[in-house]
Amino acid sequence: MKKLFNKNIIAVCLLLALAGCKDDFDNIRIESNPIDSDQHQTIQGLAQIEKEIALNWATVTSDLYNGVTAFKTTTSDANLINVQNLWKLARNPWESNESFGFGPASTDDIDASSDDWPFDITAFNAILSSNQTLNQAFIVEMTTTTKGFHAIEYLVFGSDGKKKATDFNSRELQMLDLLSFDLRTQAGKLNTRWTTGSADSFYDDFISAGSTSSSYATTSAVLGEVLGSMVDILTELPDNKIQTPVSLQSNAYLESRFSDYSFYDYRNNLNGVYAVYVGKYGNITTKKNISSLVGAANPAVNEKVLTQFKLSLALMDLIQPTSMNQAILTKQDQLNDLAGELQKLNKILNEDVREVLGL
Amino acid sequence: MYVKCWDCKFIAFAFLLWACQDNTSQPVSENDPDEVYSGGTTTSFDVTSRAYTFPLANIGDASLAQHNVGDIVFDATFVTPPASFNGGLGPLYNNTSCKSCHANDGRARPPLGNEPFNGLLFRISAQGVDAHGGPLPLQGFGLQVQTRAIIGVQPEMNISISYEEISDSFEDGQMYSLQKPTYTIINPYIPIPIGTMISPRVANPNFGLGLLEAVAEQTILSYADENDTNGDGISGKANYVYDQSLNQIVLGRFGWKASQPSLIQQAAAAANGDMGITSTYFPDETSKEQIQDVVAHDPELSSDQLNAIKVYLETLAPPARRNSSDATVLKGRGLFIQARCSACHIPKMRTGSSGLSELSNQTIRPYTDLLLHDMGEGLSDGRPDYKASGSEWRTPPLWGIGLTKIVNGHTSFLHDGRARSLMEAVLWHGGEAEQSKQDIKKMSQADRNALIKFLESL
After folding, report:
1. Is B11 at the interface with chain A, CB within 8 A?
2. What is the block-wise mean pLDDT of chain B (458 residues), using blocks of 10 residues?
3. Banded model confidence at residue A320, pLDDT cuts 50, 70, 90
4. Percentage of residues in chain A with pLDDT exceeding 90?
């Protein structure tokens, strides 16, 4: 008995001493099974949603390019209004796409080439007034802050949102044509990468997580990727997109100030995150989704997320009229409240949902 | 047999001594149960495209607040002045934001096809050295080629890349091909003198830099063997470079040739050279003393903003290893050591004391010695950089390298991104690493695969 006691004492001392000379590792991870069936089905659903968003974006940017072509042929106010509306339609799927900001949107520079911000208005005006030859090669070389959505927006709405067809000169029309073609190209790239069987298909890599994927060794890695993107936009939306222009009282900090379409950009940001969480986008409804995964593991957390989504969406819809250019001057309290609720939603997703899903 | 209690105590004591010893002078460890913790207690655990973007796992509130400010500045996109905000771009520049080259705080690659240059830049210099022994700025160009400019100013030049395929085979007969780049200068704004030296450099990952800065100088120097006194064919040489804030020559740690002494100087130099953003460190515009000089602006990056970027870079956590206990990975690890890759890519070291307590006294696994090594003529850029000759390069840290594909969507490696895979990077090794490469070429396909599996687990 005495010997046993001594041995135990020594063993405990040894363990304590070893623990003492180790670094303070309290976050040891246990690797999970690479493929979880429910997660796998959720990922198939997420891929379907992104495939649909990318296809929509490719379609509406093609419509925009066609509209610009018609406007270039017949430079009328009616055709300009059509282009302005098509620009807004092209914004919708793109701004809903923030939960998929990883992969080709990032690595293929699609995000930067399409939606860099702030728009370099000084450089863009200088290009227009220079004798620089305008062609596709030049557009490819252009700094990303002078092309994409916001360069097109500046051209078709003007700095005050009051542009008329008669305001356009031939160089602006040429630039508009080239920029809308380039935007369509970027959307086409995203659509191709999110198409199964395409060359270098990211879609295939995404859905094969945990098996043959070259990017994701486990299904939970994909869920972590998507959740990370959701958290990123729910950080950027309240902090940078809402609170910064409110606190500085300047629409220069609003995303789509020329068109005054920022409210819809922000609504689409939130819609996109919600669509991914509940697995519903357009005509697509997925049986397994992040909400169902969370709900199966912890119904209270899922309810908490859904409630916070509803509250945030409702607060956003209270902002009427939907001019963010005006709202930052007249509805600061409402916008700050909205930002606060979005930050709460962000925290729930980043902490509670992450914990429930073991990410 | 029953062990006496005294014997138990003796064994336990001896084991404790072994377990607690500082492994600084023991670079190759056969058994490292904590190897998953690349950055010690700072290590982050994320296997997504954000793997390089997390603050230190042990970061304190004060450091985190500064980190977050630095994150915003690092993300800021600069535009042509005058502007409501973020003006100051150019007049000459390579890109408009830090993140444009260091996407997701990761590694850049050379352009493909007609893509613009994002993250591959070119150092340039004339023959000779400057007052501090560093590269001599080329009149009219300085020390870095800016391929972009604000409207009204001509970019210094354009550069195109072409590749020549070079075929060879492993000893088992399996063929491989390496691509050798050739750079062609197009439309320089003034003629470029004969003898001008140009060196391509891709943007490196940002994480773990604070830990590398916290490694004591004596630790790094303990790995050096400049004259190869031990006769193993591997030397290891420290670079000594000019520190502007100290106005003296100090040990170089950062960049492909270890030509930057500190993170703050590295950050300020990059802001100035890459974006034309001035600071108290580099108050002159990139066009100073050039034909197309413009009026200097006030520092476009305040000291507070520059310091915030420094803290941001200091406090990005190294990602944890994956699958470190996998049998194939363990086999590859053994082969890595056996081929003596670990003689330069030193697996483990300890940091010293740092101004940030989070970084102090950490056992880290960066797989570098931070020293210069001759990598052979195949990789030479022919451009000396302080003590580094054209063929000498700093051993790049390998930690996190296996996440490059998911973080940055490519597997381009080496200083100019010429290697299209980890194995191609291995096969470009020469000079001091020639024997290691030959040993790997003799390996079976299974062993080569295990070696790559190991590298991918880092």
Report:
1. no
2. 31 33 43 90 97 98 96 96 91 96 97 92 97 96 95 92 98 98 96 97 98 98 95 95 97 98 97 94 80 66 96 98 95 97 98 97 98 98 98 98 97 98 98 98 98 98
3. confident
4. 89
Q: Which residues contact A244 (CB under 8 A, 6 or more apart)?
A: A253
C-beta of residue B71 within 8 angstroms of C-beta of residue B61: no
> Mind listing the pLDDT tens digit for each residue in B272-284?
999 999 999 998 8
Burial class (CB in 10 A: 0-12, 13-18, 19+), B168: exposed
How much is the pTM? Answer: 0.90
Phi, psi of A226, deg, nearest 5:
-70, -45
Upper half-sphere CA count for residue B112 (Cβ side, 13 Å): 10
Note whether A216 contacts B40, CB cutoff 8 Å.
no
Q: Which residues of B touch A108 (CB under 8 A)?
A: 409
Give the pLDDT confidence of A179-225 residue by residue, as tens digits: 999 999 999 999 999 999 988 999 999 999 999 999 999 999 999 99
End-to-end CA distance of chain B: 43
CA distances A352 to A41, A278, A348, B44, B234, Å, are: 22, 16, 5, 19, 52
User: Which A positions 72-131 lie with beta carbon below 8 A of chain B?
Assistant: 102-104, 106-109, 112, 116-123, 126-127, 130
Q: Would the CB atoms of A10 and B5 count as touching at under 8 Å?
A: yes
Dist CA A303 CA A299 (whole Å): 6
Two structure tokens written together for A59: 């379609």
| Phi then psi dihedrals of residue A262, to 5 deg | -60, -40
| Structure confidence by residue, pLDDT tens digits, A336-358 | 999 999 999 999 999 999 999 99
Tokens 């030479």 label which residue? B380
Q: Does B79 sit within 8 Å of A120, measured CB to CB?
A: yes
**Chain A contact for B58, CB < 8 A?**
yes
B19 touches chain A (CB under 8 A): yes
What is the rounded distance in angstroms from the CA atom of residue A257 to the CA atom of residue A159?
Answer: 8
Class of domain A37-357: mainly alpha
Cα-Cα-Cα-Cα dihedral sign, residues B132, B133, B138, B141: negative
Structure tokens belonging to residue B171: 């000893």
Question: Alpha helix locations (H) across B103-198?
Answer: none
Using an 8 Å CB-CB cutoff, list chain A residues near B99: none
Query: Which contacts qualify for A191-199: CB closer than 8 Å, 24 or more apart?
Result: A191/A54, A191/A55, A191/A57, A191/A58, A193/A54, A193/A103, A193/A104, A193/A108, A194/A47, A194/A50, A194/A51, A194/A54, A194/A104, A195/A51, A195/A54, A196/A51
